[in-house]
Amino acid sequence: xxxxxxxxxxxxxxxxxxxxxxxxxxxxxxxxxxxxxxxxxxxxxxxxxxxxxxxxxxxxxxxxxxxxxxxxxxxxxxxxxxxxxxxxxxxxxxxxxxxxxxxxxxxxxxxxxxxxxxxxxxxxxxxxxxxxxxxxxxxxxxxxxxxxxxxxxxxxxxxxxxxxxxxxxxxxxxxxxxxxxxxxxxxxxxxxxxxxxxxxxxxxxxxxxxxxxxxxxxxxxxxxxxxxxxxxxxxxxxxxxxxxxxxxxxxxxxxxxxxxxxxxxxxxxxxxxxxxxxxxxxxxxxxxxxxxxxxxxxxxxxxxxxxxxxxxxxxxxxxxxxxxxxxxxxxxxxxxxxxxxxxxxxxxxxxxxxxxxxxxxxxxx
Amino acid sequence: xxxxxxxxxxxxxxxxxxxxxxxxxxxxxxxxxxxxxxxxxxxxxxxxxxxxxxxxxxxxxxxxxxxxxxxxxxxxxxxxxxxxxxxxxxxxxxxxxxxxxxxxxxxxxxxxxxxxxxxxxxxxxxxxxxxxxxxxxxxxxxxxxxxxxxxxxxxxxxxxxxxxxxxxxxxxxxxxxxxxxxxxxxxxxxxxxxxxxxxxxxxxxxxxxxxxxxxxxxxxxxxxxxxxxxxxxxxxxxxxxxxxxxxxxxxxxxxxxxxxxxxxxxxxxxxxxxxxxxxxxxxxxxxxxxxxxxxxxxxxxxxxxxxxxxxxxxxxxxxxxxxxx
Lengths: 365, 325
Prior knowledge:
Oligomer: heterodimer
Strand content of chain A: 5-15%
Order of helices and strands of chain A: HHEHHHEHEEEHHEHEHHHHH
GO molecular function (chain B): magnesium ion binding; oxidoreductase activity
CATH architecture of the largest domain in chain B: 3-Layer(aba) Sandwich
Radius of gyration of chain A: 22 Å
Strand content of chain B: 15-25%
Mean pLDDT of chain B: 97
CATH superfamily of the largest domain in chain B: Thiamin diphosphate (ThDP)-binding fold, Pyr/PP domains
Strand order of the largest sheet of chain A: 1-2-3-7-6
Strand order of the largest sheet of chain B: 3-2-4-5-7-6-12
Shape of chain B: globular
Keywords (chain B): Oxidoreductase, Thiamine pyrophosphate
InterPro entries (chain B): THDP-binding, Transketo_C/PFOR_II, Transketolase-like_Pyr-bd, Transketolase_C
Organism (chain B): Tessaracoccus flavus
Shape of chain A: globular
Mean pLDDT of chain A: 96
Low-confidence stretches of chain B: none
Cofactor (chain B): thiamine diphosphate
Order of helices and strands of chain B: EHEHEHEHHEHEHEEEEHEEHEHEHH
Radius of gyration of chain B: 19 Å
Structural class of chain B: alpha/beta
């Protein structure tokens, strides 16, 4: 694959074989891996349901994660209490792992609200403007450092930030400024780039002449390319980067080499800009299939387990569908009330004007 | 207790007091630490409060504002300095797409108590991009608050009020007035930040202005007074939200209004003020609201900026036209 380095960290082959690596090792148990597989299967199921909900007109848009489950689950499982996540707009599996109610995600894409997360302290808002969140994450990480939450002898007192962005975002000024600021202040931030090969219709070849992870060196911090479809490798590399940040050793960059199997959003048509052969080649690297093969061979899962997960997925899907009528749309009143922390006379006047106008319909009804 | 200070020194004192009062207040910006800022507004503050409270930033405006967003999320109250008005635009996206929106987008969970200090306006003979008046861009953006001080006393108090505000405040400092001295009263309770001030009382017409134009309007009013015309001068102080109560009560009395600003005429602050006065005081006013503003051109080279900027003569000419109705 173009852009794939021979240095790419891989601990589980597409055929489900474990590999050893000189620097990175998966330290979890087989039970952990069974849990990761469950996360990935359920995330894939939820994603399929949300895509279908968009087709039914229940969501305004959806950003499918199909193919990126390992990158998201593996990295999210390296996040611990006290760490903070700054997502882009496709990190549904990260949200799921961290316990953000999936209805929160549906509410945003339905337009019920602007992203009023329940666990906003640990999982920040989705970010639509490409790359803006990398600066927010870096600033937050600077704050962690000012607060003395980094590099303490007692590791439990340490925290780090992980920020997600895509290959396309690597071209943005903000993202490059975030790299500069992170390096300048040695901020405890991990830049987790899901290189899914395509920024809508623009291939990675248009964005970068070198593998993305090599850019990190130019900013003065380490960059690692990891097989983004290998959940073991992703977990191992992210653990290393997060621990490094918590210990006060500064930022790092992870390029999760993966592939967006579906469309960028439900609005685009990937058949217009990429070849079917490419999709086929990547299907052979499927993150769910390879872990399933491995765990089957280990005897950790069997058909009954898979059937049970499938049932769980169906229930999750049914819940997602059932949640749609339960989603409450925000109100004009709530919006007027939250434009500012400290209300203004002028906006209050508009709120009253709106309320009177709305009330006039009720009187006439 | 009061003291005579330049606006620059008053801002410095206000920032120092804010840093002393709240350990969550941070300053960040290009050259603000060791140098003390290109206008020396932050002089001595890094030495006093350390490099983690007064932060020298890389030369990246979006980076300065974007990292301040993250600092707000972490509970800090960052005060960022944009070196010159014309350099705010690389950070404009962060201001309008992030800073202004996060509070509403999160249903109030993420306040943005950030102050963005911008030395603005012309009249100092600077090269291009160093003399602009971008206030309308910000005042047009819901979620932001925009203020401008015009004298040392306001500078001292308003910067502290802006820092204490839980909303993001674009704080416009009229750079050509930095070295104008005024009495700063350190003990008197200041007016609320979002309240206009009647800088001079008069009866024949109201001049509505802010920031650098307040002094020009006061000069015009002094000249007019010698000629027997009594002009009221209202210093808006707050551009978003605008204090309509003070403005309309003044114009209700004088029945004539002239808005004066350096920014280009079309769709400037004056347009909004004129529209609002026409709506509210249509049957009261004796003349249409007139505007004296910069022309609809990019800010001109310094050698001709005096032709571009509203002057005492241009203001008095507008007063004559208003009185002729």
